Amino acid sequence: MTGSKYLLEINNFTCLVDCGLFQGLKALRLRNWENLPIQVEEVDAILLTHAHLDHSGYVPRLVKDGFAGPIYCTKSTAALLEILWMDSAKLQLEEADFAKRKGYSKHENPEALYGTKEVEAALAMLKTVNFKTNISIHEAVTASFHPAGHILGAASIMLNIEGDTQSKSILFSGDLGRPKDPIMFPPTHFEAADVIFIESTYGNRTNIPLDTTAELADQINQTIDNGVVLIPAFTIGRTQNLLLMLKELMDKRLIPMIPVYIDSPMAISVTKLYEEFDEEHRLNDKEVFNYPQFHYIQEHSQSATLNEVKNRAIIISASGMVTGGRILNHLFHRVANKEDLLLFVGHQAEGTRGRTILSGEGEVKIFGELKKVLCKIHQIAGLSAHADQGELIDWYQHLKNHPKYTFIIHGEQESSEALSKLLSPELPQNIIVPDYLETFQLFNNI
Asked: What's the pLDDT at 318?
């Protein structure tokens, strides 16, 4: 479900819709080092549905390899990319340096996928677009970006292709949000498209609850007298949803007034963008992020002092799947503490440390050391920024006519297959779960 990249060849024009990093299983991550099936110089343009690295994080590598074309995205996506790409480059460089010092790489001089130089070059190539506005990306191709409800800036992308004898449309759902998300507006519905690419992150999960405040309060109240609640949270969307819920729970005295430490400089920077792009969300409480109980941790020295906190506190830190960032330091010091609670609030992809812990493994490797997992573990599903199976089907069923082709993408195999069986049983030949690097010819003589 990671590393989203979809290559379109339209007559003499070639573009990528999304250009993401593979994450999770090592076999997937190794794909980040493989060459594209075409020469990088042949790619004329990139269109990004949103800023998450599994959709955008490979762009700087493509720039390093020679890509020099425009990169289209919404304005808020561009603002997020500056934060996410710089952080990704920093982590890539640190990982390469660590591998070299520890000698665990098979390469004598392990390199980063890219660095800050490539990020700066990629940022200079961004072409920002307004929502719901047609833009020409080629003499025969127009594109429009429509709110997808997933995170700030997230879009579904509609491509319209004008040919000599006919016109065709291709719709990429991007990652779809939930219709009743507490912060983001619902995803856009469409009436028609000839070809649709629909995500399937939760294609096999139904009826994920929308109101999880009672569950969140219960987990906090069971823990805080004797321990600390540690929450790995995604920096965009999930952290902000959590802060809104925690403020409401404290205001209603459903949980005690305890300190909440947001230990993620990137999440802090992202949170400020919610004020800058306030027209993109329905959050009315402008002071929610300035709540007195919220403490934003910037410096590493401040972060280290949280290891001394024994109870009556909540720590929110990135990354959401426990693959890197400051959450690793907190987990290292707390995973063996029976009184602490590790509370997952998002999807844990296969091959990630978060999935390993959730699967019940008794040990987990952190900083090269095996640590016993003795802390309490719980997962809350309702905070996901992804539409569940029923919501995906509802989005699809707003189409008045069956597309010629529907491609089920961006999901683990089980999720994609489950959704494919439900979308259009009477036309199964038009519902396709594509394999990695599989190609299709969709139209003739456009």
From this structure: 87
> Are 73 and 170 within one domain?
yes
Same domain, 90 and 172: yes
Residues in the chain, total:
446
pLDDT at 114: 95
What is the per-residue DSSP string for 162-214? Answer: E-SS-EEEEEE--S---TT-SSBPPPPP-S--SEEEEE-TTTT-----S--HH
Structural domain total, the chain: 2
- Residue 174 in contact with residue 408, Cβ under 8 Å? no
The Cα–Cα gap between 328 and 94 comes to 15
Beta bridge partners of 379: 344
What is the distance between the alpha carbons of residues 409 and 403, in angstroms, rounded to a whole number? 15
Pair 28, 175 in one domain = yes
Same domain, yes or no: 248 and 268: yes
Instruction: Please give the C-alpha separations between residue 60 and each of 45, 218, 431, in angstroms, as whole numbers.
Output: 14, 43, 33
By DSSP bridging, strand 45-47 and strand 13-19 are parallel
Together in a domain, 159 and 266: no
pLDDT in tens, 365-410: 998 889 999 999 999 987 888 999 999 999 999 998 889 999 999 9
Residues 256 and 358 grouped into a single domain: yes
Res 286 pLDDT > 80: no
Q: Exposure string (b/e) for 139-174, b if CB count within 10 Å is 16 or more?
A: ebbbbbbbbbbbbbbbbbbbbbbeeeeeebbbbbbb
Up-side HSE of residue 181: CA atoms within 13 Å toward CB?
A: 30
Neighbours of 12 (CB within 10 A): 9
Amino acid making up residue 7: L
Find out whether the peptide bond into 167 is cis, omega within 30 degrees of 0.
Answer: no
d(CA 38, CA 274): 38
Residue 7 CA to residue 62 CA, distance in Å, equals 13
Structure tokens at 287: 């002071």
Task: Clarify whether residues 372 and 392 are in a common domain.
Answer: no
Question: Confidence class of residue 182 from pLDDT cuts 50, 70 and 90?
Answer: confident
For residue 425, the 8-state DSSP code is T
Residues 223 and 86 in one domain: no
3-state secondary structure 399-416: CCCCCCEEEEECCCHHHH
Q: What is the pLDDT of residues 67-92, one digit of tens each?
A: 999 999 999 999 999 999 998 998 88
Report the distance separating Cα 311 and Cα 249, nearest Å: 18
Per the structure, the complete domain to which residue 130 belongs is given by 5-205+385-432
263: domain CATH number? Answer: 3.40.50.10890
